[in-house]
Design a protein that fits this description.
The chain contains 9 helices and 13 strands. The chain is an alpha+beta fold and about 375 residues long. It folds into 2 domains: about 140 residues; about 180 residues, Rieske Iron-sulfur Protein (3-layer Sandwich), CATH 2.102.10. The strands form 4 sheets. A 5-stranded antiparallel beta sheet has the order 3-4-5-6-11. The chain has a 4-stranded antiparallel beta sheet with strand order 7-8-9-10, with no helix packed on it. Helix 3 runs parallel beside helix 6. The longest helix has about 30 residues. The radius of gyration is 34 Å and the shape is elongated. Its main location: membrane.
Length: about 375
Amino acid sequence: MTTEIERTGDPIADPGLAPHQYRPQDVDGNQERRTERQIAGMFGVATLLLIGFCVAYFTIDSDVRVFAFGDPNSGDAFGGWSAQNFTFGTTLGGALLLIGIGIIQWAKKLMGDHEMVEMRHPARSSDEDRSAVMADINAGVQESGIGRRPLIRNSLLGAVGAMGLPAIVMLRDLGPLPHSQDETVWKKGMRVVNDVSGAPIKPADLEVGQLVNAEPAIFFETDDEGHPVIHGHDLLAAKAKAAVIVVRMRPEDITPKKGRENWGVEGILCYSKICTHVGCPISLWEQQTHHLLCPCHQSTFDLADNGKVIFGPAYRPLPQLPLAVDGEGYLVAVSDFPEIVAPSYPELARDQEKLNEKFGGEA
């Protein structure tokens, strides 16, 4: 059966559309201006919320919790939510919500409102249709009123522009810059303790061939109120760089580099637990060969020969921590690591030169 369109090439004269209903904003200038101010207000509040996101990033400590049990400002609080994450969610989410609602209200109440009837056409439009589309786009721009409504336009541009602020601020969370990792929490006289119990270690506690995972004693220390000296995010960051392994070998099996003859105690040596390839934690210990194997990419270090790389992709020796014994007979650090504890990166040579100057020569 032939349709009316196929027979005449024209659409049906009256497709049955209801009469056009004008919006209050179309007939009432006061209502139009009131709606415009409401939309601009949403964009303005969104801008303030995005600025609040950036302020919260720098002013709220990542360890503070809300709706938590215990002191929300201490590392002992548990349960509840991270105050920083809660603020991030409310400010950024609220800003996105207000911008979205404002744009929808703008389109529904202020932009051009009329029915359009469009004939179907082949997949490729004719040049005339393309010109007509561009004319429609230009007409849409005119009907949106973006040129004659500077209050809405400028407030929207301000809110959308402020969206870049959280993105820039959050770039800091990609991690510390390589040259900020030159030092760890190890200091002269700091005790070496078991990483589980926190018990200090004496030379007599170790047997030949034994390996112990250890940490600096400061991780287990508390202040006058009983709170950990280092806790929360700072504790995790410090542990990532300061973790060590302590091994005991026969002194005659050790061949120390010049200047390292007194870095051990009765055959006990201390090395970083962080692989110099990509930073994996390592503690796979071969007692007979004195080799330490990284489980990630099989880099192998000879701990009897200054942590030298003997196999695998790592090309820097394992950093060694010089040891001594304090007045009570416990193992302590003589200083921080003279070498950089971190995965390898391009700036490493420059930063190692700075450490060499600090420790008075090549480490």
